[in-house]
Specification:
This protein is an alpha/beta fold. It has two domains: 193 residues, Rossmann fold (3-Layer(aba) Sandwich); 201 residues, Dehydroquinate synthase-like, alpha domain (Up-down Bundle), CATH 1.20.1090. The protein is built from 16 helices and nine strands. Strand 1 and strand 2 form a beta hairpin. Helix 10 runs antiparallel to helix 11. GO terms for molecular function: alcohol dehydrogenase (NAD+) activity; metal ion binding.
Length: 401
C-alpha cells in the first residue's frame, strides 16, 4: 500500500481552515509558531490543559521553551478533566483575562482543546458565563486565536470548529456543543510522538470516536461526496492501524496514520455533521462525567447502525467494508452490519454495554429527556437519516443496555 512510501518523519502541512502540522517531530513547529505570533503582537497567551499528560507526553518541554525564547508571557490552567465543565472554562477564562491574553493554546485531546476554544471566546465576553455560551443565551461573534497541540487520535477538534463542554450547574446535566467559523484553530500540531504513551484503552476509545464521526457524517441528511470519501479512508486506516497500535503503543507508523485518520474524520464531520450516536452519547457522559466519550459512542454504535442501515445501505456497506466485509448494500443487511460492527469493537478490546457501566432500564426515560432538552442536540437530531422520534431514541438506548 502507498502508506509505506510516506516519510512519516518529515513534517508536512495540511492546509484548510486550520493549518495543521502532521508528522513525527511536528511539535518542534511550536518554535516557528511562537516566533510568528510574537511578530504579530501576540505577547501574552493562556495555556489550557489537563493535569499531567501535557508534561508526560513531552509537549510541555517544547512549548515552554518556545514561549520563553520569544518572550511571550503565559498563564497555565492545568485542571481540565475529561468531559470538561463550564466552571473549568470560567476558571481558565479568569486567568486569561487577568493576564490580558491575546491567544489561547490548548494542549491535549478533545477536552483541553475544546476548553481552549471556549476560553478564547469567553475572554472577550466578560459579561457572560460559559453556561450562557453553551445554553445559547448569547451568540458570540469573535474569538481570540487558538493554537491546538493535539495529543490523542480521535476527536478531530484540532481541524474543526466544534467544541463541547458540560454544564452541570444548578442541577443541570447538559453536554451541549457549539460551532462557530471563528473557532477553527489558527495552527494545530499533530505529532504521533506525543501519543505513544496513550494507554490501550484510550488508544481504542479515541480511535472509535473517529469511526463514529465518519459513520455519522457520511449518513446525515446533509452529507456530501467529500464526507463519504473521507469516511471511507478513515475507516480503512483505523481498521488497518489500530490493531498495530494496540499491540505496540510505540509503533510510530501506526500512530501516524491513526492521527491522520482522526484529523480527516474531524474534517469529515465538519462538512457532513453528526446525528444519532453523538446526540445520544452526550447525555450518557453528562450523567456520568467519568465515562470516556469514545466508550459511550462504542456502546451505542451497533444499535445506531442497525436502525439507520436501511436508509443508507449503499454508503454504509462501502464505508464499513474494512471492518464488516461482504456487505452488499441492501436494506435487509441491517442486523449483519450491526453484528459486524459489534464483533469488530470486541476485537479491539471494547466489549462493554450500557448495563456494564451502570445504566439500567430506569435510566432510559431521563436519557431520552436529555436528548431532546440539551441545547444544540436538536441540530444533530435534525441531521438524522431517519425520523429522530422519542421512540427511536428509546429503542437505541434499550438495544444498547
Amino acid at each position: 500500500m502507498w502508506e509505506k512510501t510516506m516519510p512519516i518523519n518529515e513534517v508536512r502541512e495540511l492546509r484548510g481552515k486550520t493549518n495543521i502540522f502532521l508528522g513525527v517531530g511536528a511539535i518542534e513547529k511550536i518554535f516557528d509558531i511562537a516566533k510568528e505570533i510574537k511578530e504579530k503582537g501576540i505577547d501574552k497567551v493562556a495555556i489550557v490543559t489537563g493535569k499531567s499528560s501535557y508534561v508526560k507526553c513531552g509537549a510541555w518541554h517544547y512549548i515552554e521553551k518556545a514561549l520563553k525564547e520569544n518572550h511571550i508571557e503565559f498563564v497555565l490552567y492545568n485542571k481540565v478533566t475529561p468531559n470538561p465543565l463550564s466552571t473549568q472554562v470560567d476558571g481558565a477564562t479568569k486567568m486569561a483575562r487577568e493576564l490580558g491574553a491575546k491567544a489561547v493554546i490548548g494542549i491535549g485531546g478533545g477536552s483541553p482543546i475544546d476548553t481552549a476554544k471556549s476560553v478564547a471566546i469567553m475572554t472577550l465576553y466578560p459579561e457572560y458565563t460559559t453556561a450562557d455560551l453553551y445554553e445559547y443565551n448569547f451568540i458570540p461573534t469573535k474569538s481570540l486565536p487558538v493554537i491546538a497541540i493535539n495529543t490523542t487520535h480521535g476527536t478531530g477538534t484540532e481541524a474543526d470548529r466544534f467544541a463541547v463542554v458540560s454544564v452541570l450547574e444548578d442541577g443541570k446535566e447538559y453536554k451541549p456543543a457549539i460551532a462557530y467559523d471563528f473557532s477553527y484553530p489558527m495552527y494545530s500540531i499533530d505529532d504521533p510522538k506525543l501519543m505513544v504513551s496513550l494507554p490501550k484503552s484510550q488508544t481504542a476509545y479515541t480511535s472509535i470516536d473517529a469511526i463514529n464521526h465518519v459513520v455519522e457524517a457520511c449518513t446525515t441528511a446533509v452529507t456530501t461526496p467529500y464526507a463519504v470519501m473521507l469516511a471511507k479512508e478513515t475507516v480503512r486506516l483505523m481498521a488497518k492501524y489500530l490493531p498495530n497500535a494496540l499491540e505496540n503503543g510505540e509503533d510510530l507508523e501506526a500512530r501516524y496514520y491513526l492521527t491522520y485518520a482522526s484529523t480527516i474524520a474531524g474534517i469529515c464531520f465538519d462538512n457532513g455533521m453528526l446525528h444519532l450516536t453523538h446526540a445520544l452519547e452526550h447525555p450518557l457522559s453528562a450523567i456520568k462525567p467519568d465515562l470516556a466519550h469514545g466508550l459511550g459512542l462504542a456502546m451505542l454504535l451497533p444499535a445506531v447502525v442497525r436502525n439507520i442501515y436501511s436508509a443508507r445501505p449503499e454508503v454504509l456497506a462501502d464505508v464499513l467494508s474494512p471492518i464488516v466485509p461482504e456487505l452488499k448494500g441492501t436494506k435487509e443487511e441491517a442486523e449483519k452490519a450491526a453484528n459486524g460492527v459489534r464483533e469488530w469493537l470486541e476485537k479491539v478490546g471494547v466489549k462493554e454495554t450500557l448495563t456494564d457501566l451502570g445504566f439500567k432500564e430506569e435510566h432510559i426515560e431521563k436519557l431520552v429527556e436529555l436528548v431532546f432538552t440539551t441545547p444544540s442536540l436538536d441540530l444533530l437530531l435534525g441531521c438524522s437519516p431517519i425520523p429522530p422520534t422519542k421512540e427511536l431514541v428509546e429503542k437505541v438506548y434499550r438495544e444498547s443496555l
